[in-house]
Design goal:
The structure holds 2 protein chains of 2 kinds. Chain A is mainly alpha-helical. Helix content of chain A is 62%, strand content 0%. In chain A, helix 4 runs antiparallel to helix 6. The longest helix of chain A is centred in the N-terminal third of the chain and has 35 residues. The two termini of chain A are 34 Å apart. Chain B folds into 2 domains: 39 residues; 72 residues. Chain B contains 5 helices and no strands. In chain B, helix 2 packs antiparallel against helix 3. Chain B is flat, with a radius of gyration of 25 Å. The C terminus of chain B is likely disordered. The chains are: A mainly alpha, B mainly alpha.
Protein backbone atom coordinates (compact mmCIF):
# COMPACT_ATOMS: atom_id res chain seq x y z
CA UNK A 1 0.00 0.00 0.00
CA UNK A 2 1.56 3.35 -0.96
CA UNK A 3 2.11 5.13 2.34
CA UNK A 4 2.26 8.68 1.06
CA UNK A 5 -0.74 8.95 -1.20
CA UNK A 6 -3.80 8.49 0.99
CA UNK A 7 -5.02 10.57 3.89
CA UNK A 8 -3.34 10.12 7.24
CA UNK A 9 -6.73 9.49 8.79
CA UNK A 10 -7.01 6.15 7.02
CA UNK A 11 -3.86 4.87 8.68
CA UNK A 12 -4.98 6.04 12.09
CA UNK A 13 -8.15 4.04 11.61
CA UNK A 14 -6.13 1.03 10.51
CA UNK A 15 -4.31 1.21 13.85
CA UNK A 16 -7.61 1.40 15.73
CA UNK A 17 -9.31 -1.44 13.85
CA UNK A 18 -6.73 -4.24 13.51
CA UNK A 19 -9.27 -6.76 12.20
CA UNK A 20 -9.24 -4.87 8.91
CA UNK A 21 -5.70 -6.13 8.35
CA UNK A 22 -6.94 -9.71 8.32
CA UNK A 23 -9.10 -9.16 5.26
CA UNK A 24 -7.80 -10.12 1.81
CA UNK A 25 -5.27 -7.66 0.45
CA UNK A 26 -7.40 -6.17 -2.35
CA UNK A 27 -10.22 -5.30 0.07
CA UNK A 28 -8.03 -3.16 2.35
CA UNK A 29 -8.40 0.19 0.64
CA UNK A 30 -12.13 -0.07 -0.17
CA UNK A 31 -12.89 -1.22 3.39
CA UNK A 32 -10.82 1.56 4.90
CA UNK A 33 -12.44 4.16 2.73
CA UNK A 34 -15.85 2.78 3.64
CA UNK A 35 -15.02 3.08 7.34
CA UNK A 36 -13.76 6.64 6.84
CA UNK A 37 -16.97 7.37 4.98
CA UNK A 38 -18.98 6.53 8.07
CA UNK A 39 -17.36 9.35 10.04
CA UNK A 40 -18.72 12.17 7.85
CA UNK A 41 -22.10 10.40 7.83
CA UNK A 42 -22.11 10.69 11.61
CA UNK A 43 -20.86 14.28 11.54
CA UNK A 44 -23.44 15.37 8.97
CA UNK A 45 -26.29 13.72 10.89
CA UNK A 46 -25.18 15.22 14.20
CA UNK A 47 -24.73 18.64 12.64
CA UNK A 48 -28.23 18.30 11.22
CA UNK A 49 -29.64 17.44 14.64
CA UNK A 50 -27.77 20.17 16.52
CA UNK A 51 -28.32 22.72 13.76
CA UNK A 52 -32.08 22.28 13.67
CA UNK A 53 -32.32 22.46 17.45
CA UNK A 54 -30.10 25.55 17.49
CA UNK A 55 -32.15 27.20 14.75
CA UNK A 56 -35.37 26.67 16.68
CA UNK A 57 -33.91 27.88 19.96
CA UNK A 58 -32.23 30.92 18.41
CA UNK A 59 -35.38 31.94 16.57
CA UNK A 60 -37.41 31.41 19.74
CA UNK A 61 -35.13 33.52 21.90
CA UNK A 62 -35.05 36.25 19.29
CA UNK A 63 -38.83 36.37 19.39
CA UNK A 64 -38.95 36.11 23.20
CA UNK A 65 -40.36 32.60 23.13
CA UNK A 66 -39.00 29.45 24.71
CA UNK A 67 -38.92 27.20 21.67
CA UNK A 68 -39.06 23.40 22.02
CA UNK A 69 -39.23 22.40 25.70
CA UNK A 70 -41.06 19.07 25.76
CA UNK A 71 -38.56 16.27 25.09
CA UNK A 72 -35.41 16.08 27.15
CA UNK A 73 -33.98 18.90 29.24
CA UNK A 74 -34.63 22.19 27.45
CA UNK A 75 -36.11 20.26 24.55
CA UNK A 76 -32.74 18.88 23.46
CA UNK A 77 -34.28 15.64 22.20
CA UNK A 78 -36.90 17.44 20.12
CA UNK A 79 -35.04 17.10 16.80
CA UNK A 80 -34.43 13.42 17.44
CA UNK A 81 -38.15 12.95 18.08
CA UNK A 82 -38.92 14.88 14.90
CA UNK A 83 -36.50 12.71 12.94
CA UNK A 84 -38.13 9.51 14.19
CA UNK A 85 -41.54 10.97 13.38
CA UNK A 86 -40.41 11.83 9.84
CA UNK A 87 -39.17 8.27 9.35
CA UNK A 88 -42.65 6.98 10.06
CA UNK A 89 -44.32 9.37 7.62
CA UNK A 90 -45.85 8.06 4.44
CA UNK A 91 -43.78 8.42 1.30
CA UNK A 92 -45.85 10.07 -1.40
CA UNK A 93 -44.77 10.41 -5.01
CA UNK A 94 -47.33 12.42 -7.03
CA UNK A 95 -48.95 10.59 -9.93
CA UNK A 96 -47.89 13.26 -12.40
CA UNK A 97 -44.28 13.36 -11.24
CA UNK A 98 -41.28 12.04 -13.13
CA UNK A 99 -40.67 9.10 -10.82
CA UNK A 100 -37.00 8.17 -11.45
CA UNK A 101 -35.89 11.79 -11.22
CA UNK A 102 -38.04 12.34 -8.15
CA UNK A 103 -36.28 9.47 -6.39
CA UNK A 104 -32.80 10.43 -7.58
CA UNK A 105 -33.05 14.09 -6.57
CA UNK A 106 -32.53 13.67 -2.78
CA UNK A 107 -29.60 11.35 -3.46
CA UNK A 108 -27.93 13.92 -5.70
CA UNK A 109 -28.51 16.72 -3.21
CA UNK A 110 -27.19 14.69 -0.29
CA UNK A 111 -24.16 13.29 -2.09
CA UNK A 112 -23.29 16.81 -3.27
CA UNK A 113 -23.11 18.03 0.33
CA UNK A 114 -21.55 14.84 1.61
CA UNK A 115 -18.62 15.09 -0.79
CA UNK A 116 -17.77 18.50 0.65
CA UNK A 117 -16.87 16.90 3.99
CA UNK A 118 -13.91 15.10 2.41
CA UNK A 119 -11.83 18.24 2.11
CA UNK A 120 -12.63 19.92 5.44
CA UNK A 121 -9.64 19.72 7.80
CA UNK A 122 -10.72 19.35 11.42
CA UNK A 123 -7.09 19.13 12.46
CA UNK A 124 -3.73 18.72 10.72
CA UNK A 125 -4.30 14.98 10.43
CA UNK A 126 -8.06 14.76 10.81
CA UNK A 127 -9.04 15.21 7.21
CA UNK A 128 -10.32 12.45 5.01
CA UNK A 129 -8.11 13.31 2.04
CA UNK A 130 -5.90 16.35 1.85
CA UNK A 131 -6.42 16.85 -1.88
CA UNK A 132 -3.78 18.98 -3.56
CA UNK A 133 -6.64 20.70 -5.39
CA UNK A 134 -8.72 21.03 -2.20
CA UNK A 135 -10.24 24.48 -2.62
CA UNK A 136 -10.87 23.95 -6.33
CA UNK A 137 -12.50 20.63 -5.52
CA UNK A 138 -14.81 22.33 -3.00
CA UNK A 139 -15.80 25.01 -5.51
CA UNK A 140 -16.58 22.31 -8.07
CA UNK A 141 -18.44 19.90 -5.81
CA UNK A 142 -20.49 22.64 -4.14
CA UNK A 143 -22.44 22.96 -7.40
CA UNK A 144 -23.67 19.37 -7.36
CA UNK A 145 -26.33 20.04 -4.71
CA UNK A 146 -28.05 22.46 -7.10
CA UNK A 147 -28.39 19.71 -9.68
CA UNK A 148 -30.34 17.70 -7.13
CA UNK A 149 -32.54 20.69 -6.38
CA UNK A 150 -33.31 21.40 -10.03
CA UNK A 151 -34.05 17.70 -10.47
CA UNK A 152 -36.44 17.85 -7.54
CA UNK A 153 -38.18 20.96 -8.83
CA UNK A 154 -38.56 19.63 -12.34
CA UNK A 155 -39.52 16.09 -11.41
CA UNK A 156 -42.29 17.20 -9.04
CA UNK A 157 -44.31 18.56 -11.97
CA UNK A 158 -45.58 21.23 -9.63
CA UNK A 159 -45.59 24.91 -10.47
CA UNK A 160 -44.33 25.98 -7.06
CA UNK A 161 -41.50 23.49 -7.22
CA UNK A 162 -40.47 24.55 -10.69
CA UNK A 163 -40.45 28.22 -9.77
CA UNK A 164 -38.40 27.52 -6.67
CA UNK A 165 -35.92 25.36 -8.55
CA UNK A 166 -35.46 27.94 -11.32
CA UNK A 167 -34.87 30.71 -8.82
CA UNK A 168 -32.43 28.51 -6.99
CA UNK A 169 -30.57 27.73 -10.17
CA UNK A 170 -30.32 31.39 -11.19
CA UNK A 171 -29.30 32.46 -7.69
CA UNK A 172 -26.65 29.83 -7.12
CA UNK A 173 -25.25 30.29 -10.60
CA UNK A 174 -25.04 34.05 -10.12
CA UNK A 175 -23.40 33.91 -6.69
CA UNK A 176 -20.88 31.33 -7.76
CA UNK A 177 -18.93 34.18 -9.36
CA UNK A 178 -18.32 36.21 -6.15
CA UNK A 179 -17.54 32.97 -4.31
CA UNK A 180 -15.01 32.08 -6.99
CA UNK A 181 -13.39 35.52 -6.78
CA UNK A 182 -13.11 35.23 -2.99
CA UNK A 183 -11.52 31.79 -3.27
CA UNK A 184 -9.03 33.07 -5.87
CA UNK A 185 -8.10 35.91 -3.50
CA UNK A 186 -7.45 33.43 -0.71
CA UNK A 187 -5.33 31.31 -3.05
CA UNK A 188 -3.24 34.38 -3.96
CA UNK A 189 -2.39 34.82 -0.28
CA UNK A 190 -1.93 31.14 0.53
CA UNK A 191 -0.17 30.03 -2.64
CA UNK A 192 -1.72 26.59 -2.35
CA UNK A 193 -5.00 24.83 -3.09
CA UNK A 194 -4.58 22.31 -0.29
CA UNK A 195 -6.86 23.00 2.66
CA UNK A 196 -4.25 21.92 5.20
CA UNK A 197 -1.65 24.22 3.64
CA UNK A 198 -4.10 27.10 3.77
CA UNK A 199 -4.64 26.61 7.50
CA UNK A 200 -0.94 26.02 8.18
CA UNK A 201 -0.21 29.36 6.50
CA UNK A 202 -2.28 31.02 9.22
CA UNK A 203 -0.44 29.41 12.13
CA UNK A 204 0.85 31.62 14.90
CA UNK A 205 -0.61 34.77 16.36
CA UNK A 206 -4.10 35.64 15.18
CA UNK A 207 -2.64 38.54 13.16
CA UNK A 208 -1.48 35.81 10.78
CA UNK A 209 -5.06 34.97 9.87
CA UNK A 210 -5.88 35.77 6.28
CA UNK A 211 -8.48 38.34 7.25
CA UNK A 212 -5.68 40.50 8.68
CA UNK A 213 -3.25 39.86 5.84
CA UNK A 214 -3.94 43.06 3.96
CA UNK A 215 -6.22 46.08 4.30
CA UNK A 216 -8.88 44.81 1.88
CA UNK A 217 -9.15 41.22 3.04
CA UNK A 218 -12.15 42.05 5.24
CA UNK A 219 -14.02 43.13 2.08
CA UNK A 220 -13.40 39.68 0.65
CA UNK A 221 -14.43 38.14 3.97
CA UNK A 222 -17.76 39.98 4.03
CA UNK A 223 -18.36 39.32 0.34
CA UNK A 224 -17.75 35.63 0.99
CA UNK A 225 -20.21 35.57 3.90
CA UNK A 226 -22.90 37.27 1.80
CA UNK A 227 -22.28 35.08 -1.22
CA UNK A 228 -22.26 31.92 0.87
CA UNK A 229 -25.60 32.93 2.40
CA UNK A 230 -26.97 33.20 -1.12
CA UNK A 231 -25.42 29.90 -2.18
CA UNK A 232 -27.04 28.26 0.82
CA UNK A 233 -30.37 29.93 0.00
CA UNK A 234 -30.54 31.20 3.57
CA UNK A 235 -32.54 34.29 4.46
CA UNK A 236 -32.42 37.05 3.28
CA UNK A 237 -31.72 35.09 0.07
CA UNK A 238 -34.33 32.38 0.63
CA UNK A 239 -36.26 33.18 -2.56
CA UNK A 240 -36.14 29.57 -3.80
CA UNK A 241 -38.26 28.39 -0.88
CA UNK A 242 -40.02 31.61 0.02
CA UNK A 243 -42.75 30.15 2.24
CA UNK A 244 -45.13 33.06 1.84
CA UNK A 245 -45.23 32.91 -1.97
CA UNK A 246 -43.98 29.52 -3.13
CA UNK A 247 -45.44 27.18 -0.47
CA UNK A 248 -42.00 25.70 0.16
CA UNK A 249 -40.29 25.85 -3.21
CA UNK A 250 -38.58 22.83 -4.69
CA UNK A 251 -39.55 20.39 -1.92
CA UNK A 252 -43.29 21.15 -1.94
CA UNK A 253 -44.10 17.61 -3.13
CA UNK A 254 -41.61 15.83 -0.92
CA UNK A 255 -42.70 14.14 2.25
CA UNK A 256 -41.33 11.93 5.00
CA UNK A 257 -37.77 10.72 4.78
CA UNK A 258 -37.09 12.19 1.33
CA UNK A 259 -37.93 15.62 2.67
CA UNK A 260 -35.70 15.18 5.69
CA UNK A 261 -32.80 14.14 3.45
CA UNK A 262 -33.05 17.56 1.79
CA UNK A 263 -33.14 19.10 5.24
CA UNK A 264 -30.05 17.26 6.46
CA UNK A 265 -28.26 18.23 3.25
CA UNK A 266 -29.14 21.87 3.81
CA UNK A 267 -27.85 21.93 7.37
CA UNK A 268 -24.76 19.99 6.33
CA UNK A 269 -24.07 22.60 3.66
CA UNK A 270 -24.59 25.37 6.23
CA UNK A 271 -22.00 23.77 8.47
CA UNK A 272 -19.52 23.31 5.63
CA UNK A 273 -19.91 26.94 4.60
CA UNK A 274 -19.38 28.13 8.18
CA UNK A 275 -16.34 25.91 8.59
CA UNK A 276 -15.03 27.17 5.27
CA UNK A 277 -15.32 30.80 6.37
CA UNK A 278 -13.31 29.89 9.47
CA UNK A 279 -10.72 27.95 7.47
CA UNK A 280 -10.22 30.50 4.72
CA UNK A 281 -10.16 33.66 6.79
CA UNK A 282 -9.99 32.96 10.51
CA UNK A 283 -7.24 30.45 11.03
CA UNK A 284 -9.24 27.22 10.70
CA UNK A 285 -8.41 24.87 13.53
CA UNK A 286 -5.88 27.22 15.13
CA UNK A 287 -6.98 29.33 18.06
CA UNK A 288 -4.69 32.23 17.21
CA UNK A 289 -2.87 31.98 20.52
CA UNK A 290 0.54 30.39 19.85
CA UNK A 291 1.02 28.52 23.13
CA UNK A 292 -2.41 26.87 22.83
CA UNK A 293 -1.71 25.81 19.26
CA UNK A 294 1.61 24.22 20.13
CA UNK A 295 0.16 21.70 22.59
CA UNK A 296 0.70 18.13 21.40
CA UNK A 297 -1.22 14.94 21.99
CA UNK A 298 -4.89 14.34 22.61
CA UNK A 299 -5.40 17.64 24.43
CA UNK A 300 -3.99 19.58 21.47
CA UNK A 301 -6.23 17.70 19.03
CA UNK A 302 -9.25 18.45 21.20
CA UNK A 303 -8.36 22.15 21.37
CA UNK A 304 -7.89 22.41 17.62
CA UNK A 305 -11.02 20.44 16.68
CA UNK A 306 -12.90 22.45 19.30
CA UNK A 307 -11.58 25.70 17.85
CA UNK A 308 -12.81 24.80 14.38
CA UNK A 309 -16.22 23.69 15.63
CA UNK A 310 -16.46 26.81 17.81
CA UNK A 311 -15.74 29.11 14.89
CA UNK A 312 -18.07 27.15 12.59
CA UNK A 313 -20.92 27.30 15.09
CA UNK A 314 -20.32 31.00 15.63
CA UNK A 315 -20.96 31.49 11.91
CA UNK A 316 -23.94 29.15 12.04
CA UNK A 317 -25.30 31.44 14.75
CA UNK A 318 -24.57 34.45 12.53
CA UNK A 319 -26.56 32.84 9.70
CA UNK A 320 -29.48 32.29 12.05
CA UNK A 321 -29.22 35.77 13.48
CA UNK A 322 -29.37 37.24 9.96
CA UNK A 323 -32.26 34.96 9.05
CA UNK A 324 -34.42 36.11 11.95
CA UNK A 325 -33.47 39.78 11.57
CA UNK A 326 -33.62 40.69 7.89
CA UNK A 327 -36.63 40.49 5.55
CA UNK A 328 -36.37 38.57 2.29
CA UNK A 329 -34.98 40.57 -0.62
CA UNK A 330 -36.54 40.71 -4.08
CA UNK A 331 -35.25 38.85 -7.11
CA UNK A 332 -33.99 42.00 -8.85
CA UNK A 333 -32.28 43.18 -5.65
CA UNK A 334 -30.57 39.83 -5.43
CA UNK A 335 -29.07 40.16 -8.90
CA UNK A 336 -28.21 43.79 -8.26
CA UNK A 337 -26.26 42.80 -5.15
CA UNK A 338 -24.42 40.07 -7.00
CA UNK A 339 -23.41 41.62 -10.30
CA UNK A 340 -23.19 45.28 -9.36
CA UNK A 341 -21.84 45.13 -5.82
CA UNK A 342 -20.07 41.88 -5.01
CA UNK A 343 -18.44 41.22 -8.39
CA UNK A 344 -16.85 44.69 -8.86
CA UNK A 345 -15.80 44.92 -5.21
CA UNK A 346 -14.46 41.38 -5.38
CA UNK A 347 -12.33 42.04 -8.46
CA UNK A 348 -10.93 45.28 -7.04
CA UNK A 349 -10.14 43.59 -3.73
CA UNK A 350 -8.49 40.75 -5.59
CA UNK A 351 -6.22 43.09 -7.54
CA UNK A 352 -5.30 45.06 -4.41
CA UNK A 353 -4.55 41.78 -2.63
CA UNK A 354 -2.31 40.67 -5.49
CA UNK A 355 -0.55 44.03 -5.46
CA UNK A 356 -0.04 43.90 -1.70
CA UNK A 357 1.23 40.33 -1.97
CA UNK A 358 3.73 41.38 -4.62
CA UNK A 359 5.00 44.48 -2.80
CA UNK A 360 4.96 43.02 0.70
CA UNK A 361 5.45 39.27 0.39
CA UNK A 362 5.34 37.39 3.64
CA UNK A 363 2.93 37.74 6.46
CA UNK A 364 1.07 40.91 5.59
CA UNK A 365 0.87 43.29 8.53
CA UNK A 366 3.32 41.11 10.39
CA UNK A 367 5.98 41.90 7.81
CA UNK A 368 5.56 45.60 8.50
CA UNK A 369 7.21 44.92 11.84
CA UNK A 370 4.20 45.58 13.98
CA UNK A 371 4.70 42.59 16.17
CA UNK A 372 8.27 41.36 15.74
CA UNK A 373 9.04 37.88 16.92
CA UNK A 374 5.43 36.79 17.24
CA UNK A 375 5.26 35.11 13.85
CA UNK A 376 5.45 31.39 13.22
CA UNK B 1 -3.06 10.49 -6.11
CA UNK B 2 -5.36 7.98 -7.76
CA UNK B 3 -6.20 6.53 -4.37
CA UNK B 4 -7.22 10.02 -3.21
CA UNK B 5 -9.73 10.33 -5.99
CA UNK B 6 -10.89 6.74 -5.55
CA UNK B 7 -11.80 7.91 -2.07
CA UNK B 8 -14.22 10.41 -3.58
CA UNK B 9 -15.91 7.66 -5.56
CA UNK B 10 -16.28 5.60 -2.41
CA UNK B 11 -17.76 8.63 -0.68
CA UNK B 12 -20.31 9.01 -3.47
CA UNK B 13 -21.33 5.40 -2.87
CA UNK B 14 -21.45 5.80 0.93
CA UNK B 15 -23.55 8.97 0.60
CA UNK B 16 -25.96 7.36 -1.83
CA UNK B 17 -26.19 4.27 0.38
CA UNK B 18 -27.00 6.46 3.38
CA UNK B 19 -29.96 7.97 1.54
CA UNK B 20 -31.16 4.67 0.12
CA UNK B 21 -30.84 2.96 3.49
CA UNK B 22 -32.85 5.66 5.22
CA UNK B 23 -35.53 6.15 2.59
CA UNK B 24 -36.00 2.67 1.20
CA UNK B 25 -35.11 0.38 4.09
CA UNK B 26 -35.52 1.91 7.55
CA UNK B 27 -38.34 4.25 6.66
CA UNK B 28 -40.13 1.60 4.59
CA UNK B 29 -40.34 -0.66 7.61
CA UNK B 30 -41.65 2.13 9.83
CA UNK B 31 -44.05 3.97 7.58
CA UNK B 32 -47.65 3.10 6.73
CA UNK B 33 -48.93 2.98 3.16
CA UNK B 34 -52.58 3.96 2.92
CA UNK B 35 -53.49 4.36 -0.71
CA UNK B 36 -55.90 7.11 -1.63
CA UNK B 37 -56.05 8.63 -5.13
CA UNK B 38 -56.37 12.15 -3.76
CA UNK B 39 -53.03 11.90 -1.99
CA UNK B 40 -51.21 11.44 -5.25
CA UNK B 41 -52.55 14.62 -6.80
CA UNK B 42 -50.13 17.44 -7.54
CA UNK B 43 -50.37 20.12 -4.88
CA UNK B 44 -51.89 23.33 -6.16
CA UNK B 45 -53.43 24.96 -3.10
CA UNK B 46 -56.08 22.27 -2.82
CA UNK B 47 -57.56 22.87 -6.27
CA UNK B 48 -57.30 20.33 -9.10
CA UNK B 49 -54.05 21.11 -10.91
CA UNK B 50 -54.43 23.01 -14.18
CA UNK B 51 -52.15 21.68 -16.87
CA UNK B 52 -48.61 20.47 -16.51
CA UNK B 53 -45.81 22.40 -14.86
CA UNK B 54 -43.44 21.43 -17.67
CA UNK B 55 -43.67 24.60 -19.69
CA UNK B 56 -41.38 27.03 -21.43
CA UNK B 57 -39.74 29.27 -18.90
CA UNK B 58 -38.88 32.93 -18.57
CA UNK B 59 -36.10 33.98 -20.92
CA UNK B 60 -34.29 36.06 -18.31
CA UNK B 61 -33.11 33.02 -16.39
CA UNK B 62 -31.17 32.02 -19.50
CA UNK B 63 -29.59 35.47 -19.74
CA UNK B 64 -28.35 35.03 -16.18
CA UNK B 65 -26.98 31.62 -17.09
CA UNK B 66 -25.15 33.09 -20.11
CA UNK B 67 -23.55 35.86 -18.05
CA UNK B 68 -22.53 33.21 -15.55
CA UNK B 69 -20.85 31.06 -18.18
CA UNK B 70 -18.67 33.99 -19.26
CA UNK B 71 -17.61 34.92 -15.73
CA UNK B 72 -17.19 31.34 -14.58
CA UNK B 73 -14.70 30.69 -17.36
CA UNK B 74 -12.78 33.84 -16.37
CA UNK B 75 -12.66 32.78 -12.73
CA UNK B 76 -11.64 29.25 -13.66
CA UNK B 77 -8.80 30.79 -15.63
CA UNK B 78 -7.68 32.76 -12.58
CA UNK B 79 -7.22 29.75 -10.29
CA UNK B 80 -3.92 28.56 -11.82
CA UNK B 81 -2.68 32.15 -11.95
CA UNK B 82 -3.46 32.63 -8.26
CA UNK B 83 -1.71 29.36 -7.40
CA UNK B 84 1.63 30.38 -8.90
CA UNK B 85 1.30 34.09 -8.09
CA UNK B 86 3.32 33.87 -4.89
CA UNK B 87 6.33 32.30 -6.58
CA UNK B 88 6.25 34.33 -9.78
CA UNK B 89 5.62 37.72 -8.18
CA UNK B 90 8.94 37.32 -6.35
CA UNK B 91 10.64 37.27 -9.75
CA UNK B 92 9.06 40.39 -11.17
CA UNK B 93 5.84 42.33 -11.64
CA UNK B 94 5.06 40.70 -14.99
CA UNK B 95 2.61 38.18 -13.54
CA UNK B 96 0.68 40.99 -11.87
CA UNK B 97 0.56 43.23 -14.98
CA UNK B 98 -0.63 40.26 -17.01
CA UNK B 99 -3.67 39.79 -14.79
CA UNK B 100 -4.40 43.53 -14.72
CA UNK B 101 -4.49 43.52 -18.53
CA UNK B 102 -6.72 40.46 -18.49
CA UNK B 103 -9.07 42.05 -16.00
CA UNK B 104 -9.19 45.29 -17.99
CA UNK B 105 -10.37 43.36 -21.04
CA UNK B 106 -12.89 41.61 -18.83
CA UNK B 107 -13.97 44.96 -17.41
CA UNK B 108 -14.76 46.25 -20.90
CA UNK B 109 -17.15 43.37 -21.43
CA UNK B 110 -18.57 43.82 -17.96
CA UNK B 111 -19.21 47.54 -18.47
CA UNK B 112 -20.77 46.80 -21.85
CA UNK B 113 -23.16 44.27 -20.33
CA UNK B 114 -23.92 46.71 -17.51
CA UNK B 115 -24.59 49.63 -19.88
CA UNK B 116 -26.77 47.46 -22.11
CA UNK B 117 -28.78 46.49 -19.07
CA UNK B 118 -28.17 42.76 -19.28
CA UNK B 119 -27.33 42.67 -15.60
CA UNK B 120 -30.73 44.09 -14.71
CA UNK B 121 -33.65 41.87 -13.91
CA UNK B 122 -36.50 44.25 -14.68
CA UNK B 123 -35.13 45.92 -17.79
CA UNK B 124 -36.04 43.44 -20.52
CA UNK B 125 -39.76 43.70 -19.85
CA UNK B 126 -39.91 47.39 -19.06
CA UNK B 127 -38.22 48.42 -22.30
CA UNK B 128 -40.25 46.01 -24.43
CA UNK B 129 -43.69 46.82 -23.09
CA UNK B 130 -43.22 50.44 -22.17
CA UNK B 131 -43.67 50.07 -18.45
CA UNK B 132 -43.48 47.54 -15.68
CA UNK B 133 -47.25 46.94 -15.52
CA UNK B 134 -48.00 47.03 -19.23
CA UNK B 135 -47.34 43.44 -20.04
CA UNK B 136 -49.40 40.31 -20.17
CA UNK B 137 -47.08 37.47 -19.32
CA UNK B 138 -48.53 34.04 -18.99
CA UNK B 139 -45.49 32.11 -17.90
CA UNK B 140 -44.69 31.67 -14.23
CA UNK B 141 -41.46 33.68 -14.26
CA UNK B 142 -43.35 36.78 -15.32
CA UNK B 143 -46.12 36.21 -12.85
CA UNK B 144 -43.89 36.02 -9.84
CA UNK B 145 -42.01 39.07 -10.92
CA UNK B 146 -45.10 41.21 -11.23
CA UNK B 147 -46.47 39.95 -7.93
CA UNK B 148 -43.16 40.78 -6.33
CA UNK B 149 -43.25 44.26 -7.71
CA UNK B 150 -46.74 44.76 -6.32
CA UNK B 151 -45.55 43.57 -2.95
CA UNK B 152 -42.72 46.04 -3.06
CA UNK B 153 -44.87 48.95 -4.13
Amino acid sequence: MPETTTGALIYQILELLPFLKELPEFLHIPMLMFVTGLIPVTVISLVGLVGVYMERKVSAFMQIRLGPMEYGPWGTLQTLADGIKLMGKEDIIPREADKPLFILAPIAAFVGVFLLFIAIPFDRDIIVVDLNVGIFYLAAVASIEVVGIIMAGWASNNKWSLLGAMREAAQVVAYEIPVGICLVTVVIVSGSFSMVDIVEEQKGLFLNWFIFRNPVMWVVFIAFIIASLAELKRAPFDLPEAESELVSGFHTEYSGMRFSIFFIAEYGAMFVASALIAILFLGGYYTGIPFLDNIDGILGILIRVGALFGKAFAFLFLQMWIRWTLPRIRLDQMFYLCYKVLVPFGFVAMIITAFWQMVLPGDGFMSLGWAPGLGK
Amino acid sequence: MHVQFANIVVFCVVGALFVILNVSVVSRILRPTVRDPEKYETYECGEPAIGSAWIRFDMRFYTIALVFVIFAVEVAFMYPWALVFKQLSAVGPFVFIEMVVFLLILAVGFIYAWAKGDLEWVRSIASQRGGPEGRSGSNPGNQTDSSERKNAA
